[in-house]
Amino acid sequence: MAGNLAQYCPAALYAGGCTTQGCTLLHNVKLCELCCVICVSQSVYNAHIRGNHHRKNSTNREKPNVFPFCIICERDIGNLSSWGSHLAGAAHRKAAIRRGVSARIEPPSASQLAHRAQHCPLCSTTVLKLRWHGHIKTTDHKKREAVAAHKGAFEHAEQDKEGVCISPDGGVDFGVVKLDESRTGVHKVLIVHLVPGAPGVVVERADVFDKSNRISSSFAVQMAGGGPLVDGEDMQLRVSLTQADYGRYDGHIEVHFRRLSPNRQFVIVRPVCAIVGDKLDRELLKAATPHVPRKRVPWKNGQKYYPGRRPPALVAVPWVRKLKAYPIPPALVATLRDSSLDDLTQTMRSKHLPPAFNATTHCTHFKTLLWAEEWRMETDLRRYDLADVTFTKEGALYYLVVPGLAEKRPSVVVGDQIEVQASGADPTGRCFAGFVHDVRLGDVGVAFHVSFKPAQAVLFNVRFKLNRIPLRRQHEALGVLPMPSDRVLFPLPSHVGAFPQTNVPLALYNPSIANNAPQLQAVHRILQRPAGLAPFIIFGPPGTGKTVTVVEAIQQLLQRNPDTHILACAPSNSAADILAERLMALGPEKLFRYYAVSRTRSAVPEQLLLFTYINPEGYFSVPALSTLAKYQVIVSTCGSASFAYGVGLPQGHFNHIFVDEAGQATEVEVMTSVRTMVTSTTNIVLSGDPKQLGPIIRSSAARDLGLGVSYLERLMERDAYSVHSGRGVAFVKLVKNFRSHRAILNYPNESFYANELEVCGPPSSINSFIGWPHLVSRKFPVIFHSISGQDEREASSPSYFNIDEITVLKDYIQKLKAEAKYKISDEEIGIIAPYRAQVHKIRKALSTVAADVKVASVEEFQGQERRVIILSTVRSTRDLLQYDQRYTLGFVANPRRFNVAVTRAKALLIVVGNASVLSTDPLWRRFLNYINLNDGWRGEPISWDPTAPVQDDAEYANELREQGVAGLAAFMQRMQTYGGNSDATADELESGANMERVFVEPE
């Protein structure tokens, strides 16, 4: 029928009637706008509105009275919740001025739209009349049309007819079936009943069709008995489920009848479904409440602010350079506020970014992107606002419980501001801006104005203010003069230099490097480089020892020249701590670890406290400038590295600046250390992997315009770092992998590293799961477990979880812990999931089974390794992949996230996911082919030819959609034989997607 909709008149379908004289199209088609169902006749429509589906929707849904269509701008704005922000936008105000009307208008009603525009209930959008005919011909509309027609046909087929009733009328739901029971088979019964007095019928056959077009269905149906049914007789249909794997299984049963007199055929359909899983898991992990979009916390603007007491930590460092404010320029604010997310990238490029990107415009370019990121960060913080909360007084501080604090959602540190106002009517009109003095695991202590004395029952609304200090330091660094030369920002092959490359024997601090030619080569090149060349890069794929190489190079430089001064940085405190810990042999007289004043002592490794300076008040600070200048090595995060400039160390003080894990830092973060200290003689060394995760960016516009490209990655794309001329001179690629079994490493090695990585891990580690009885192939320690689960959400969280996958991975965890021969501790197992909700659900499911297994996102696993890694990919809905791709979530269409995820495992990698969804991405399709061809596949069988070449430009998602449409069309054709989306705005979607991201450590 989907194809036959062209026979029906669009005016009859969408306008309620046709006024065209002599129209030859069919007019007996009806659209139920409430249910988005197309009915092919008046009788089918009448049956629909009497049916359960329509009655349920009539109760739970309301047909819209007004529409989010701006009659001034003549466009649909997507969502009524965005109406106010649209009216406040500059584009709308300008359009109102041009028309000479007030900009303050209400959303129009259907009658107001009647002569100007038409609402499309299938697409949830309103279209100008002159564009209507074009709209209904679009691919998206046609796809929704086909689905609506299918819904109508299926609903009609479900209705009892011709005196035949099939009970239960809701079909067969097996519920949650245990795996051992589904393997042996379970069954239920459908009763076919002919009402007394109805003409006799013959049950000709009963067929089962699987919803996902599997090769073989999990369901079967048998007729008990046969022959005609007459005058009130019954017949049983025995429906069975037989399935050897976990997952969700859906289909429908088509019962075909022939009426005896007059001779006529008809069909009645019943749905059938089952979940093969664990009832206890489902009860424990099910959504506590249905998902509903999050509501913004009410906030009264224009109130009088009462500042609180600032913490002493904020003045702990004796700064000699005043840090400017660097506010977002008003013109850019207007663009960020008024542009739609779809238009923002192009508007910023044309209006605010310099036309060329070079050393002269570098500062302006990145300042603009940094401001765009700040705007997005501030917007995202609004999702963490709290409503109707209370404070608990402890001493001079008021403590507030902050959900998600331990996960940095939101990130709150000492010195941050929190704004508070009464949630109800407040005649005083006051807003208190308190300062955070104490951060604990789940709550923060805030110092407010002395007049803040809330009664016990008073409720407050709370806003978290963005800590702008790290952003201001980055702006400061970008503007430091003199500006670095091209050899730092845009190096050419001539900046690499030609110098002797003789390898003088070294007395190595780490003897293992002696047998690792690339590591040794990198150390030699760093030692031999004359001052003032282009940055040198240590390209370190997973498990190849980047940090080991950096530490050895630092030690060798100091051994060669004790007067050398080195600044060593990393994007995160954890990575900087690793650097400092491996350099502790230098002693506290030569090594200084700087921490931002907001860092708490409890967050610092005990062994590193000896290498810090704590002022008499107990806060992290810096010693006297003369003492600071004597340290041979200073270690800090990239974001804090400009402290040296801020306290008065002169530019050029450091001979070398090292940035480890440089691929994870934005270019501006690296510049915070480089631009403040570099001179014409400073050597820069970057260590990282451009094939792994880059910096965390919240603004899609800033990401698209280059903020998501690290300094390391940008340099490696330049001719100076080409494989042919730059390798061994401008960069060295480490190739000895000490982490993973060959079966785990093979695919990422081929896909990302030109097949150059060598398997060098200790056999006792990487081979420790060969022969494990639960491998599909005893010699191949990689498993892909194919399962069709379901994406779910709960409450107001935008994050997704998949209980079906959790049941599978929990089963693997129990099998891992049960095998004495393959003994493994919780700490040696890691579980990676791309969505925060899935992480929480997995932790909950494992709390009594393996509580110490680390469960986290890919970002939290970068740089780490485990003997066993299990990936839960979550996605089971193809339509959500575009959301993931746009906001760089999930594993599909995100090569770097995929690369990091599959390269964390030493001895065993298990991937749990929906093969049909993952296979839409060519990178994943090849990976699944690789596993299948090496006998690592378990679960639902592969649905494509794994030996067929995979094309990078192939539209595999379209291929699967076409298969789905073909399934709908086949059903519609069979029925015809017998005659019988989200409203969220783009801005809300981006903000929701950013809920998956932690806020980057401020300093």
Automatic annotation (TrEMBL):
The GO cellular component terms are: cytoplasmic ribonucleoprotein granule
Name the predominant localization. cytoplasm
What start-end ranges are recorded for coiled-coil regions in this protein? none
Cited SUPFAM superfamilies: P-loop containing nucleoside triphosphate hydrolases
Instruction: Reply yes or no: does the keyword Phosphoprotein apply.
Output: no
Which keywords has UniProt assigned to this entry?
Answer: ATP-binding, Cytoplasm, Helicase, Hydrolase, Nucleotide-binding, RNA-binding, RNA-mediated gene silencing
Give every Helicase ATP-binding domain span: 527-708
Subcellular location, record wording: Cytoplasm, Cytoplasmic ribonucleoprotein granule
Please name the Pfam families in this protein's record.
AAA_11 (PF13086), AAA_12 (PF13087), MOV-10_beta-barrel (PF21634), zf-met (PF12874)
What CDD domains does its record include? DEXXQc_Helz-like, SF1_C_Upf1
Q: Which domain of life is it from?
A: Eukaryota
| One BP term from GO | regulatory ncRNA-mediated gene silencing
Q: What InterPro entries is this protein classified in?
A: DNA2/NAM7-like_C, DNA2/NAM7_AAA_11, Helicase_ATP-bd, MOV-10-like_beta-barrel, MOV-10/SDE3_DEXXQ/H-box, P-loop_NTPase, SF1_C_Upf1, Znf_C2H2_type
Signal sequence span per UniProt?
A: none
The EC number(s) this enzyme carries: 3.6.4.13
Write out the GO MF terms.
Answer: 5'-3' RNA helicase activity; ATP binding; DNA helicase activity; hydrolase activity; RNA binding
**What reaction gets catalysed by this protein?**
ATP + H2O = ADP + phosphate + H(+)
Give the record's family classification.
Belongs to the DNA2/NAM7 helicase family. SDE3 subfamily.
Q: What is this protein called?
A: RNA helicase
Gene source species: Daedalea quercina L-15889
